[in-house]
Amino acid sequence: MEIPYTVKNRPDTGIYNAKLGVWLFLASEVMLFGGLFSAYVLLRVGAPEGHWPHGWLDVRFGTVNTILLALSAITTLLAWAACKVREFGKFKFFHGCTILLALMFLGIKSYEYHDKWIHYEIQLKDGTFADGHLEEQDDKQVVLHGRIVKDEKDLYDLRAQKDIQLGEVKIDRASIVKMQNYGPWHNTFTAIYFTLTGLHALHILGGTLVIFYLWGPGSKMYKTDPERFTNRIEVSGLFWHFVDLVWIFLFPVLYLT
Amino acid sequence: MSESEQPVDLKSYIRLCAVIFLVVLCTTSAMIAASFSDHLGSGWTGRVTVILGIAVINAFLVAGYLMHLLSEKKLVYTVLCFTVFFFIGLMGLTLWAMGNFPVGTINH
Amino acid sequence: MQSNVQQFPPNRTEEADAHADHGHDHGHDDHGHHEHHEPGFWSKYIFSTDHKVIGIQYGLVSLSFMLFGLFLMVMMRWQIAHPGVPVPVIGPLLAAVLGQPAAHGIISPELYNSFGAMHGTIMVFLGVVPLAFAAFGNYVVPLMIGAPDMTFPRINMASFHAFYLGGLVMLVSFFIPGGAAQAGWTSYSPLASTIPTDGQAFWLVGMVLLITSSLLGAVNFIATIIQLRTPGMTWMRLPFFVWAQFVTAFLLLLAFPPLEAAGLLQLMDNVAHTSFFLPTGLAVSGPVGQVSGGGSPLLWQHLFWFLGHPEVYVLILPAMGIVAEIIANNTRKPIWGYKSLVYAALVVGFLAFIVWAHHMYLTGMGQGIATFFQATTMIISIPSVVILTCMFLSLWGGSIRINTPMLFALGFLPMFGIGGLTGLPLGLAAADLYLHDTYYVIAHFHYVVAPGTIFALFAGVYFWFPKMTGRRMSEFWGRVHFWCSFVFMNLVFMPMFAQGIKGMLRRMSDGGVNYSAAKVPGVIDTLPGTVMELNTWILWAAVGLGIAQIPFIINLFWSISHGEKVKSDNPWHATTLDWQTPTPPPHGNFAHEPQVVRGPYDYSLPGEVNDYTPQSETGGKSAH
Ligand code: HEM
Ligand SMILES: [Cu+2]
Which ipTM did the prediction report? Predict the structure, then answer.
């Protein structure tokens, strides 16, 4: 006996196996990201007054990435539709676009990560705080492109301060109490930011690999069993759309509020 | 949609996609506008509500049209409904618990 | 015919494949297998995609892990009964393998903590879940619903390998500097992030692998049960075992991911030094730690118990399924209240998601939320009682056939009953404030999982062994195994109720000696000497329990090649489809797609020649 309903729909449920499988998997993904979003909400609600950062992430990059993902979601759908009407050339084109868009997304994301990585907050012995991007450092001094604030609180809500002047700040090593970059360890915001977007980026990476496989070596199946191949494109597309869906919430939650 | 009932026509799909893309562009701009607008009060509560509201619309479009959820089978719906219910339970009850400490005890 | 089917064990002979003694047959001589090459050892036993082989792989690995978990426990019991005294016989071995933490063969408090945490983890995630869900589910579910395999055979294989890797990571962590995780199987933060060992990081990585494995398994099970039911196998004709696995799979699918999320966050805390679960101003043995703070320890507990409670139903539902099958089979009559059983299982599955905070009454939660969780906890006990009642009532008026599987199934009923009923006081905040974290809790959940679930699992092993191998396990040694296990289990766990009520706390590496009136004279109302003495008592009972497993182990392996051969494909005269296959079932299971025409428990139909009518048997009257 062969396994039934790998290609055809089962009459009483109306779907084929892999499609049910991917929806079930997505249900578990909803709970996975649900748990993480719950953590986000709790950390944010639990943060002391004025300690939740605003405006730390560059909205421009976030917007571009949102658009890239939206476009890739659309090319995914079109790639499936092209398979459906058996236009292999168009399929190749559309999913080629998907892969490129995904890579661009990841490129921008890594640039943003790098930007946080070289961003330092330095606590000084006189009680003030220097904050900015690291330009250069040696064992005598540290040079930042940034500013000095009296109260650490001023570093949290950047959206509330209209005119932030940035310039070159030279700091003597001897006057430093603590120097820390904006890595995940910096505070709960950077922690949840890196975790959420990191996990999301891993999903993008995984999805891209799958799509790349189906676009390249895996597309041989189109010749032998086009219907099954089309199903594969549909199922991988569902995953891809879900990843887009997660970003639709990540963007406002991290960049806009 | 494996053996879709009506034959697919690539052109109509491209048109549908263009519409969805435009709508997504609009909703994204609306979110950004809401984020920076001064009309929604000085605090974050109002703004967060509006922005998340728009995000939900956005998500609905993606799930409903791009993922074909609107024409999907009952089975899939049922599974997703339970999932969403449990997700709300997880977040809601946790939040409730974290806000519900006896008076005079420390939080968290 | 024999050469091209995948079977277990490999050395089975032709004769064992004798025809079913029941009228209809399934065309033994045309299993419909096209010529394909004899698969090699690796593709046949290690990288197999056949659900039956995967089931057996899961079974053997998880049984080994359970044995290891038992060993850890006996070591801990020695330390509790004789704190600071070198472990006899095994002590030098421990010292040689583990070094400093077991210096001179004495179990140090750190090692005790490692053993405790790993005992819990191994028993739950590497022992019972993989055996009850993955092993039995894999082997039996496709057979029962008349499917050729699971829907996604390769994902099934991936699931097993993720499980195996996860187990390996857990084992390796014993040997790293600092030793295995020490924060209990619950891994509460900030404890889990402040104990100086990388064991916790290993634990988390291991858990992520195990969770991945369970998720892949859950997707596969649900899809299989929904999509691959053979024609005529309607929902209400599914054997209860399949329903139980179905609900279990949903619990795993939706409850595990939040723990995975929590695990990732804790991994970040431990590796990237974030503060998801670490509060501001956290002081670690004196100075305030170098962490940013701002996190919430209670968040971990919520995410953990969001899985943790459904997990107990993951442990118990498959066991109930096994017991239901065996009871119906051995009372020779339909299970009582099939529909109630099914709906009860569904209700349990649903409510399991909204009771979790009854593990957290002591965290200072407010009245509103405590009331909510007390209410849901009391409500969820109703369907559990319904299930147990149905099973008891099934016995009523049956001509009960006693054999080893039935003995274990019968043993399950009162043991699970005790475990369940003692849970009620724990579900009520007022009583739980006193009982929480005492040995009463240990006794409660062990009655559920050890003499409860594990007995059901033994029952399942004895019951399906003939289908897997074509031979029976020894009945005599099976009964020896049952009676010894039954006695020793109760001797181990019953005294713990008393100790707990007296106030003895769990997770103490000295077994409470420092609180004992026996040690500190004149102290009133701390643990009296009698409570302390019980520790010695339990130690020897635990050793006895360990020894009682020897007949089982020998019986299991000996019977594979030497057991009495079964004379038919259906030695228990059962009705469900799993017994309508050749023995052992070949790759693809059924020669022809079976057609189901009746409910799962048509035993003793009036007017029939046999006292059982298989689900695929046409003709005769149907009870459903
Ligand atoms: C069969 C013989 C067993 C014995 C003698 C035994 C004994 C114990 C004892 C004394 C503890 C408490 C340790 C402490 O907190 O100080 C414990 C903990 C635990 N046991 Fe068992 N157990 C057995 C089997 C099992 C099984 C089959 C399971 C799983 C289903 C299990 C799951 C657990 C769990 C989850 C804990 C809590 C671990 C922790 O505190 O992190 N045990 N066991
Ligand atoms: Cu519970």
Answer: 0.96
